[in-house]
Amino acid sequence: MTQGLGMNLIAVNTLQIQGSLGATLTETSWLIAAYMAPNVSLTILLTKIRIQFGLRRFAELSLIIFAVTSLLHLVIFDLWTALPIRFLAGMAAAPVSTLGFLYMLEAFPPAKKLTWAVSLSLTCSAATPMVARVISPVLLDLGQWQQLYTLELGLALLAFSVVFLLPLTPLPYAKVLHWRDFITYPLVAIGFGLLAVVLALGRFYWWFEAPWIGICLAIAALCIGGAAAVELHRDTPLLNIRWLTSPEIATLALTLLIFRIVLAEQTSGAIGLFQTLGLLNEQSRTLYLILLAATLAGGLICGLTLTLARVPLFHGIALICIAGGAVMDGHATALTRPETMYFSQALIAFGGALFLPPAMHSGLVKTFKQGPMFITSFIAVFLFTQSIGGLMGSALFGSLVTLREKVHSAHLVEQIQLTNPIVADRLHTLAGAYHPLLSDPQQLMTEGMALLSQQVTREATVLAYNDAFLLLAAIASAFLAALGLHMAYRRLRGRLDRSRGPDALIPQSRPT
User: Fold this and answer.
1) pTM score above 0.85
2) What tens digit of pLDDT does each residue of 290-307 get?
């Protein structure tokens, strides 16, 4: 919760804090990019550092750095001092998220580590955006930006006390770091970091308008390609490229990536729609509490019933919930309010909580079969799909809304003709609001046209959100159909193998 709030207190309050920083919304979005740039890759290297230098030292030093970073947030008063501190915060949060996962594993016996521990740790991570949205209005009323991070500092100090009093079970040290790791990791960090910056900011500067976007993508491709070339020629690689590109792991990565993109319906969709309609976090608090309850319910169900054989079932139910909720949201209007979406958004939150723990469970089982040296490679897959996939989903959703809003605006404007009595009556009504202030009929008409233009833009934006909702519902449905076909193929293949008898499982010898 400490790490999750540190990440989300800014992400969910960019509209509210831009005034205190003296920045525009686009400039404030750089805070998210600065945080994500180091955060998306640092855990890959920290896994080996933890093994070589010990858990105790790793835990205490990580939380001290996190607490100091939280304290630095209290002396921020403009955007330019905020950016480097957010960069440090992204670095400091990476080991803290690992600590949360390790402590959750420590709390359960071995038989429940891959069920209850995995489910609850991922559920807590998924719940932090809703918690941040619920508590943020009160904190902002108390003291704006600084109060958000006074809370984070207090949580960091509490977490440090708990870690000091309840140390993790020490693991044997092992010398696992190699000098080539410090060639590979900077390349991976630069590549992933630049990709995160582009995905976080591309839709604000627009993809084909800002030359620096293309430059960043080119450098990211070169760095990631260079890291892959180095790792392919190592006996003990930091990232096992051959294993990562195997069909089984590639399928898992694609599954996680599509899920994160589809889940943008909630993180960027409904919340963005309400912001367009002028609703802030305080007007949607009940909705966030319902989403929090649905997320916790999904995590508890996973903990109670999760097994490796039920992973496809959990994924199928999750996709049905997400697709159904997105279809229901795809009929929003300008009069839609949070209470209209209680059920549909709860379905999506429940589906999201049902999807990730089974995927993590399945991935860890496959990784442990290969051996402990593959754990950093799996962490890279998981981090890439969750962090980069989340940014990719938001970028895709936001860009689609922007494009469709232009299309709907053009279509609606074509229908507005001043000779139409309905349009003339609407203009007269809108201009009436300025009648006590203006006496010139031409000025009244100008103000009425301006208000009508705002209404057209709002209606076009709502229609664009509906298009995006329905597109994500179609993606989830297609993914569900592909999952069903895959399961049917596996069952048919199993039946054919059983019908052939035991000899079908013995590899046939080939003539030399």
Assistant:
1) yes
2) 999 999 999 999 989 988
Residue 355: CB atoms within 10 Å? 29
* 240 token code pair: 């096992």
Residue among 29, 41, 4 at smallest CA distance from 388: 41
For the residues of 385-422, what is the DSSP string, one character each?
A: IIIIHHHHHHHHHHHHHHHHHHHHHHHHHHH--TTSHH
In this structure, are residues 163 and 61 in contact, taking their beta carbons and an 8 Å threshold? no
Percentage, residues of the chain above pLDDT 90: 20
Report the alpha-carbon distance of residue 82 to residue 242 in Å, rounded: 40
Cβ partners under 8 Å of residue 173, min gap 6: 51, 52, 53, 54
Fill in the DSSP letter of residue 126: H
Q: Which structure tokens are listed for 22?
A: 């003296």
Provide DSSP, 221-290: HHHHHHHHHHHTT-SS-SS-HHHHTSHHHHHHHHHHHHHHHHTHIIIIIIHHHHHHTT--GGGGHHHHHH
Q: Specify whether the CB–CB gap between 431 and 444 falls below 8 A.
A: yes
Token pair of 221 as six digits: 């491709």
For the segment 243-290, what is each residue's pLDDT rounded down to a tens digit? Answer: 788 888 888 888 888 888 888 877 777 888 888 888 888 888 899 999
